[in-house]
Design brief:
The complex is a heterodimer of chains A (673) and B (117).
Chain A lengths: L1 E8 L8 E4 L5 E6 L6 H13 L18 H5 L5 E9 L2 E11 L12 E9 L2 E2 L2 H11 L2 H4 L3 E3 H5 L10 H13 L2 H26 L6 H44 L1 H35 L2 H5 L1 H41 L1 E2 L4 E2 L2 H17 L5 H21 L5 H39 L5 H49 L3 H46 L5 E6 L5 E5 L11 H18 L6 E4 L7 H14 L2 E5 L7 H8 L3 E11 L2 E6 L5
Parallel strand pairs in A: 3-14, 3-15, 8-13, 13-14
Antiparallel strand pairs in A: 1-2, 1-4, 4-5, 5-6, 6-7, 9-10, 11-12, 15-16
Helix pairs in contact in A: 7-16, 8-15, 9-14, 11-12, 11-13, 16-17, 17-18, 18-19
Chain B lengths: L5 E4 L1 H12 L6 H16 L15 E4 L8 H10 L4 H23 L9
Antiparallel strand pairs in B: 1-2
Classes of the chains: A alpha/beta (673), B mainly alpha (117).
């Protein structure tokens, strides 16, 4: 298939009919355009004319109203049109797809006020609507259009193929097998099954009237009826399972899209719980410290009181000693005075002479002079000291709790610092991440994100139940089939009717054909894998600038891994740029192996690549398809080096020029730019 | 000598006491005040003479008994400082302690309770 010309009218920024003529020569057409001029609109124009779909800047699908040119709309023109002229299998076609206003609507306000019109002209003959639809679907289905019409974003999806459990990867694998022609084999297998079943039914009808086998035909009818019922049951289970899978896929996408939202929400919850724990520690420790501080004054002054007590006790000891000495001497004086009075000394046990009396009286005077006892002031002082001692002793020995406060305060501070850190950094960061996600994922909140996750689990359980049901019914069908086979064998052996015998041979033949198709699917899939791996490696190595990268290895999903030369092992984590190049190599390989070919249209495909890889990929462009239309912006690749790199493969260079803020046109680009 | 039954504290002392209460280290200004007097004695006993301190009357008025309901402080101060005006000494110690702690909190920017033990 070759594109000859595309024309857009009142579509996006292209108000007046605007065309791109494709050269008859193989190579690369480049349409340069700054951001916002209409490059993505042109990619949408191809998607619209071939599949009837458009995708706006926000990712909304089929919002046709947003594609009507603003200036045109102001003039009351609420339609747009895309015309594609092409050649396919030696015939020329014109596909015209347009949007029209629904009858009775003056000014459309939503998509419901618009409808799509498709018309195909085949070598001068206008095809009916049904034929037009059939033709368009035949040249490029929506599923395979991803390999012909893509942008940088779409290339990133091919990374999913490396994850063999990915739902999206499985869906891409299915599209890959579609472009590679696998449906021919799968349809062949299912059509052969249908043929076998139809022929067997007809044969039974013929044998029904035959007396010799009527008993068996009745059993066969019953068995066939059972099988039909079982197959209907199987069909029901499979359809319901399929509906579940669709729901699961949608939920899987929603779960994937909201994965970060869930992660961040869970993290926020965990941070808040941690903050609450730290706050609780702070509260507990502070409460305990405050409890200790309440009467802390008592032990705080204790050391000073103890010192004061020591000083006091020392002063008291002096006064007390003086007081005790005085008391001892007073007893002695009393004894002497008694001896003088009795004129008899009880110690010496003899009478006191007048001479001795004089000596004793002198002794009394001497003792009195030496120890006079406590003065009245000293006695008051001593009494005061005793009172003070009681008071000081009451508080001086209160246990000091400063150390306990310090230990608790350290715990309080550690928890407070942790709390503040969590609040100021972790919580703020996760809240900012959540805010950014909420802005991007419009209409999705944390609650919904968790609900998707729960629903996904339930749907997965439902699918597992259906799987078990399908296995059970499948086993029952196999058993019934075996019964039918035996009955058929018996009928053939006993039937005299040639038509029945022939019909049963046809059934056996159709079943053998179906088996061959099934075997073919496995063989073809293996071959395709090998061929795609080989061709993708060839394209990849054309682009490769890394010395140690030796090629690509394919998995069951058609996912490709880069293999190192040095040790033959896969490169574990490759950059976004390399992912991009591998995806590009895969698309090139698919084009080489597909049973049909077509042009490739690429919108801003280089945005993830560095200068060296961009240059390598640009050089490889002619390898992926005969006709390539590239829609880059001038900053994405360098125009002059691109001309050098692609050289003669450039068949034309155009640019999207701005007429006004809402109007663009396409013109030839000066190669002096 | 008959001593006062009511007394006032300075604005600076009141602010410090309020901060201690606001930050939940004490339930009332009275508790903070007793802590401040104890701090002045524990950490600065030899440095300050409460008899020579002078603080003019302020607007923040308290009943003496709300600080010293059983007269323990009065007795202790009398014993420690050998004074006949222990209530005046106690007031001065409360104000000095609160103002000193308030100034230290002001300087460091944070109220670290262990600094005053």
């Amino acid at each position: 298939m070759r594109f000859k010309k595309i024309t857009v009218e009142n579509f996006g920024p292209f108000k007046d009919p605007t065309s791109i003529d494709f050269s008859a020569r193989n190579g690369v057409s480049i349409v340069w355009g700054r951001n916002g001029r209409g490059k993505t609109t042109l990619l949408n124009a191809f998607n619209f004319v071939l599949n009837g779909t458009v995708k706006d800047r926000d990712g909304n699908v089929d919002n046709f109203l947003s594609f009507i040119n603003e200036a045109g709309m102001n003039e009351g023109k609420y339609i747009f049109k895309v015309i594609l002229d092409l050649e396919n299998n030696g015939k020329v076609y014109r596909i015209v797809r347009s949007i029209a206003v629904a009858p009775g609507v003056d000014k459309p306000t939503s998509n419901n006020d618009l409808y799509t019109v498709l018309q195909v002209n085949e070598s001068g003959n206008i095809l009916s609507f049904a034929d037009s639809e059939h033709f368009v679907k035949g040249i490029m289905t929506k599923e395979v259009s991803r390999f012909f019409l893509f942008d940088g974003e779409l290339l990133t999806e091919y990374e999913e193929l490396l994850n063999e459990n990915s739902v999206r990867g499985g869906s891409i694998k299915s599209s890959i097998e579609q472009i590679l022609g696998m449906p021919i084999l799968t349809y062949g297998a299912s059509d052969s099954d249908v043929a076998a079943s139809t022929i067997a039914t007809e044969a039974r009808k013929v044998a029904q009237n035959e007396q010799a086998v009527s008993k068996y035909t009745q059993n066969l009818d019953a068995a066939t009826e059972t099988r039909e019922y079982q197959e209907q049951e199987l069909q029901r289970l499979m359809e319901e399972r399929e509906a579940c899978i669709l729901r699961r896929n949608k939920l899987q996408n929603l779960v994937e899209d909201t994965e970060k939202l869930r992660q961040f929400s869970a993290r926020k919850k965990s941070i808040e719980e941690d903050m609450e724990r730290q706050r609780q520690i702070c509260d507990d420790e502070q409460r305990a410290i405050a409890g200790i501080l309440k009467d802390s004054w008592q032990w705080m002054i204790a050391p000073v009181l103890r010192q004061r007590l020591l000083d006091l006790q020392s002063a008291m000891a002096d006064l007390h000693g003086k007081e005790q000495t005085s008391k001892g001497q007073e007893i002695i004086i009393e004894y002497i005075q008694q001896a003088i009075k009795d004129i008899y000394c009880p110690v010496c046990d003899h009478p006191v002479s007048p001479n001795e009396r004089e000596k004793l009286e002198a002794k009394i005077s001497q003792i009195k002079a030496e120890t006079g006892g406590l003065s009245p002031e000293e006695k008051v002082q001593l009494e005061s000291y005793r009172t003070q001692q009681d008071i000081l002793a009451r508080y001086a020995n209160v246990t000091d709790q400063a150390q306990e406060i310090k230990v608790r305060y350290d715990r309080y501070v550690a928890a407070f610092v942790k709390f503040t850190d969590l609040k100021e950094h972790d919580l703020r960061e996760v809240e900012s991440d959540l805010e950014a996600l909420r802005k991007n994922a419009t209409g999705t909140d944390e609650k919904a994100a968790f609900e998707y996750f729960d629903q996904l689990g339930k749907v997965a359980a439902e699918i597992a139940e259906y799987d078990q049901g399908i296995i059970r019914v499948g086993a029952e069908i196999d058993k019934t089939k075996e019964t039918i086979k035996k009955l058929n064998t018996t009928i053939i052996a006993k039937s005299q009717n040639k038509d029945v015998v022939l019909a049963n041979k046809k059934v056996a033949f159709a079943e053998a054909i179906a088996a061959i198709f099934r075997e073919g699917i496995d063989v073809y899939r293996d071959k395709l894998s090998r061929d795609v791996e080989r061709d993708a490696t060839e394209i990849f190595m054309e682009m490769n600038t890394e010395e140690d990268y030796g090629g690509l290895r394919i998995n069951e999903n058609y996912g490709l891994t880069i293999i190192r030369k040095s040790d033959g092992k896969p490169v574990p984590k490759r950059s976004a740029g390399w992912e991009h190049m591998v995806a590009f190599a895969l698309i090139g390989a698919l084009h080489k192996n597909a049973p049909f070919d077509g042009p490739v249209i690429m919108d801003s495909p280089f945005y993830r690549l560095d200068i060296i890889n961009t240059k390598s990929m640009v050089k490889a462009l002619p390898l992926i398809a005969n006709q390539v239309l590239m829609l880059p912006y001038p900053g994405e690749i360098n125009p002059s080096t691109t001309r050098t790199d692609i050289g003669d493969y450039i068949v034309q260079e155009l640019e999207i020029a701005r007429i006004s803020s809402n109007e663009s046109t396409i013109k030839e680009m000066s190669t002096n730019d | 000598m008959t001593e006062f039954s009511q007394f006032t504290i300075t604005d600076a002392a009141y602010e410090a006491a309020t901060r201690f209460v606001e930050e939940k280290w004490f339930d009332s200004a009275n508790e903070a005040g007793k802590f401040a007097a104890a701090y002045a004695i524990r950490c600065h006993f030899g440095e300050i003479n409460p008899g020579s301190l002078y603080y003019p009357g302020g607007t923040h008025n308290y009943g003496y008994s709300s600080f010293d309901s059983d007269g323990s402080w009065e007795t202790i101060i009398k014993t420690l400082y050998n004074t006949e005006t222990p209530r005046a000494y106690f007031r001065n110690l409360i104000i000095w302690g609160l103002e000193d702690m308030g100034r230290r909190i002001q300087e460091s920017g944070i109220l670290q309770i262990t600094d005053f033990l």
